Every structure is written in structure tokens, then in C-alpha cells.
């Protein structure tokens, strides 16, 4: 049985909360103390062994507390990046499982997810009196809060537009989180929610700064997108008007083929162009014009009837 004096040596080795070959050896020795069966201990040493067990448990707890403090301190806002928006996964489970996996090579059975849960609880208790611990915990707690307060699709949207601030509405609409609804509507709604998050006092300053920057570049991206869409919409309407003027008896099918049957453009993109043109004319107050009505006809299933 390991003595109390030997445990003090292990404690000294484990003080920094980092994994080294030396700490791995100490942790494995502590595990032996923790798992040793009572029946293997001589009766006259049971009192001593209970004290040793208790002290070994304290040292293991102190080590995992120190280890988690190091992880939280080193990663800070990266913890939020790693855990927000994980569909169907609690932040605490994701983080704790990761920590246990990192500790796994010290020996199976030394630490579990529950050890991590208990450690965070101890740290949260310490944070009430120790400001430095409170500071270290804030990103972990922010990640918990952000996953509970805001839906998964908000953070998916954030990552989506962070990767491509100029992404078009059609691509947003194709994303699995908004399938079946308008990419433009979801873009506006989610951007508005991110603007609310920037004002949320429970979200760390650095994360809010990141969100604010992202919102700014997305708005610029939207402006570029809208300028491109307006140009395309105007062009489509102008070409159709020109075609109708030249061929007033043209059928829906012929008009569609002459305007849009261009190699490499699929039907969905054609429909999107027509939708943009109708939207642009509506904004200009021409919703009831022959030109707008003609575009609406071309959006549907075209026939051999006269377009106008």
C-alpha cells in the first residue's frame, strides 16, 4: 500500500496539471490506490488505508481541476468556437468527452466524463470567491448559454456566412437548416438575431466583436448581392420587353426558349432569374404591368399560348 509520504510526492508531480511521462506514472499509481480492494489490506492497516484512499482521491481531483483550468485558460474563445451549434449535443457533454479523450492515454478508468462534470462544479464554486477562476470559466459558461439561448441554426448560419459573406440567397435556402423556406427571409431573420446577440451581456466581448464584424461584412455582401440581382433582373425584363415588341404574337414556350435556353444554365437558376425580375418590377410599382404578368407566366409551366 502506498504511504501518505509517497502520495505527497505524487501530488508535487501533478501540481501543474499538465500531461508528461512523469505525471502519467503518478496517475497510474494513484489509480492502483483508488481501485485496490479492501479485502487485500491487512486489518490493522485499514484505518491508514482509508486515509490514503481519501488523500489519493483529493490529489486526483486537484489534478483534473488544474488540467481543466489549463484547457479553459489556453483555449478561451476557441471553446465557444468548438461547441456552439453542435446539433443535438450538449456543450458540457462535448467538452467533457473531449477532455476525457485527451486524458485517455494516462490509463483507462482513471478519469470519466463524470469526473469532468464534478470538476466544473467545483470550479464554479471556487469562482464565487476567486475572480481568476471566474474569468477562466466565462467562455465555457458562455458556450453553454449560447447553445441554450440561441438555436442551432443561428450558429450554423454564422459559420456559413463567415466562410462566404457574399453567399447568395439560393445557397442559403439549400442549407439543410432552412430547407423548404426562403434563403432571403432566413438571411434577414438570422442576421437580425445575430444583431441581438451583439447586445447580449452574457456573451463575451471578444465573441460579440467577432459577431459585429461578421454582421458588417455580411451586410456589405448583401449589398453586392442585391446590386448584382438588380442588374440581372433589369436585364431580364428589358430583354423580354424587347422580344415582345419585336414579336407581339410570341408564345410562352418560344419566349422562354429564346430568353433562357442557354447551355449550362439549369431550370432552377432560370426560375430564380425570373423571380428576381418580378420582384424588381414589383418594387418599381409595375406589378400589374403586361411585362410583369408575362414574367409570372414564364415562371410557371410554359404553354404554346400567346404570351401577351
Automatic annotation (TrEMBL):
It comes from the Archaea. This is Uncharacterized protein.
Amino acid at each position: 500500500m502506498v504511504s501518505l509520504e509517497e502520495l505527497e510526492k505524487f501530488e508535487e508531480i501533478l501540481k501543474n496539471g499538465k500531461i508528461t511521462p512523469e505525471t502519467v506514472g503518478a496517475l497510474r499509481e494513484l489509480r492502483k490506490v483508488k481501485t485496490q480492494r479492501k479485502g487485500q489490506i491487512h486489518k490493522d492497516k485499514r484505518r491508514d488505508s482509508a486515509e490514503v484512499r481519501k488523500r489519493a482521491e483529493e490529489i486526483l481531483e486537484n489534478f483534473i481541476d488544474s488540467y481543466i483550468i489549463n484547457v479553459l485558460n489556453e483555449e478561451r474563445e476557441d471553446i465557444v468556437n468548438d461547441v456552439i451549434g453542435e446539433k443535438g449535443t450538449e456543450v458540457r457533454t462535448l467538452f467533457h468527452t473531449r477532455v476525457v479523450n485527451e486524458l485517455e492515454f494516462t490509463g483507462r478508468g482513471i478519469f470519466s466524463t463524470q469526473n469532468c462534470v464534478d470538476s466544473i462544479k467545483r470550479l464554479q464554486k471556487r469562482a464565487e470567491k476567486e475572480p481568476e477562476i471566474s474569468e477562466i470559466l466565462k467562455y465555457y459558461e458562455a458556450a453553454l448559454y449560447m447553445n441554450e439561448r440561441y438555436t442551432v441554426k443561428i450558429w450554423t448560419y454564422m459559420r456559413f456566412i463567415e466562410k462566404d459573406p457574399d453567399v447568395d440567397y439560393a445557397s442559403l435556402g439549400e442549407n439543410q437548416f432552412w430547407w423548404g423556406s426562403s434563403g432571403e427571409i432566413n438571411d434577414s431573420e438570422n442576421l437580425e438575431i445575430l444583431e441581438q446577440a451583439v447586445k447580449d451581456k452574457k456573451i463575451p466581448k471578444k465573441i460579440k466583436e467577432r459577431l459585429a464584424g461578421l454582421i458588417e461584412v455580411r451586410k456589405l455582401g448583401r449589398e453586392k448581392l442585391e446590386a448584382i440581382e438588380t442588374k440581372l433582373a433589369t436585364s431580364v425584363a428589358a430583354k423580354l420587353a424587347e422580344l415582345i415588341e419585336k414579336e407581339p404574337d410570341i408564345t410562352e414556350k418560344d419566349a422562354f426558349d429564346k430568353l433562357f435556353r442557354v447551355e449550362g444554365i439549369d431550370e432552377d437558376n432560370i426560375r430564380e432569374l425570373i423571380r428576381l425580375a418580378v420582384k424588381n418590377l414589383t418594387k418599381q410599382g409595375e406589378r400589374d404591368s403586361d411585362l410583369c404578368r408575362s414574367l409570372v407566366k414564364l415562371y410557371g409551366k410554359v404553354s404554346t399560348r400567346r404570351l401577351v
